[in-house]
Input
Amino acid sequence: MEKFVKHLKDNALPGFGQGKCATHVRKALQAGGAFVTPNVASAKNYGPVLLQIGFREIEVKDPGSFHFLKGDVMVMQPYTNGNINGHVAGYTGTKWISDFVQTDFWAGPGYRAEKPAYVVYRY
Output
């Protein structure tokens, strides 16, 4: 878990994301020792991959008040007129990081406004 989190922190891009969250999270999972096939290009499809490598779904009704743990991973579906691939990010214990350091659970203003479906996974 520590290697996963370190990789997320060390490789976060400056500013807002560049649509490479699936690649960044995959590389962080691999840095943590997980075997993740590189052909999962769409972030919204990461749920089965996480389950296959030992994560389990946890129920999160309100991400604003939920106590996330280091290593949690969220998979978010797309929102109307947003990126069709959705979003995936890992929690460092203090911040959500995908290909950038997020300000909160939601990956940007569109996600924050529309609050699309999401699932959180824990190892």
